[in-house]
Amino acid sequence: MTKNETNILIIGSAPSALAAQKWNLSSFNKIVVINNAWQITSNWTNSIFPEDFPVEKRPKPSRWQTLHSAAEYVRAQNHYGGFVYAGGTMAFTAAYWSLFTFSPSLIAYLGCDMVYSGTKTHFYGKGTPDPLRKDKTLKNLRAKSARFECFASKEGCAVINLSVMPNSNLVHQQMSLNELNFSHVKPKKIDAEQYTRNLEMEKRLGYYVADGRYWKKMQDFREDEILKLDELWIKTLKNFN
After folding, report:
1. 66-68/46-48 β-pairing
2. How far, in whole angstroms, is CA 159 from its chain's centroid?
3. Can you give the three-state secondary structure of 146-207, one letter per residue?
4. Checking CA distances to 153, which of 5, 50, 120, 237 falls within 20 to 30 Å?
5. Given this model, what pLDDT does residue 140 score?
6. What is the pairing mode between strands 46-48 and 173-174?
7. What is the pLDDT of residues 112-144, one digit of tens each?
């Protein structure tokens, strides 16, 4: 499958993800569902979840569906610098894994805004807001989102957000499915020099954990340095929007 013909939809567990039940999803080559989101549509192709996701909550795949856990996505995440820099939550992990695995031309998010309010935080009711847990890698979710789009843009992949919610912790362009013209959506330009400087800073800090279990070494990471780096990733993308 070539880059020009690969469109990916990543579905999370926000209430807005239920929109997928009414959509014609045939334009997407791959539909990647995170954690419980496989319950939203039977049209998913790839289910991705962390290693501690309960076995009884995992879907039973048909012959054309596949399951993916840490054994696969750690390698993909490490290819892009590791979990500390990317942000250790599944919305970002699924995106990097999709970019690494499929070399797509488009990645579209749905139900991954990571904004939690009211009594119904997830499509199935009240859930645990994983991205809001105490974690040095998740202090600036928008910056982690910008970092991912920078990497995607470098590989010729556009990133959009199909959750047309008033607030989002994703920085990607928002549009409805009706507005989406696959041939017209192009990757954002980024500040290439700043991108290189960011990677140099990441290498200098050395916050890389090969097995992906970065939380076991959390004491080794300086939060102020991560926050400084986060601001640089925002700048790398914003300057060229």
Report:
1. parallel
2. 10
3. HHHHHHHHHCCCEEEECCCCCCCCCCCEECCHHHCCCCCCCCCCCCHHHHHHHHHHHHHHCC
4. 50
5. 94
6. unpaired
7. 998 877 666 666 666 665 655 678 899 999 999
Closest CA to 136 of 231, 229, 221, 234: 221
- Main-chain dihedrals φ then ψ at residue 222, nearest 5 degrees: -90, 120
- Whether the Cβ atoms of residue 185 and residue 159 lie closer than 8 Å to each other: no
Other CB atoms closer than 10 Å to residue 3's CB: what's the count?
13
3-state secondary structure the chain: CCHHHCEEEEECCCHHHHHHHHCCCCCCCEEEEEHHHHHCCCCCCEEECCCCCCHHHCCCCCCCCEEECHHHHHHHHHHCCCHHHHCCCHHHHHHHHHHHHHCCCEEEEECCCCCCCCCCCECCECCCCHHHCCCHHHCCHHHHHHHHHHHHHHCCCEEEECCCCCCCCCCCEECCHHHCCCCCCCCCCCCHHHHHHHHHHHHHHCCCCCCCCHHHHHHHCCHHHHHHHHHHHHHHHHCCC
For CA atoms 72, 113, 199, 229, the dihedral sign is negative
Q: Mean pLDDT across the stretch 94-112?
A: 97
Instruction: From 94, 104, 87, select the one nearest 67 (Cα to Cα).
Output: 94
Q: Where are the domains of the chain?
A: 3-238
1 has a pLDDT exceeding 60: no
Q: What is the C-alpha to C-alpha distance for residues 174 and 185, in angstroms, rounded to an integer?
A: 11
Please tell me the distance from the alpha carbon of residue 8 to that of residue 30, in angstroms, as a whole number.
Answer: 5
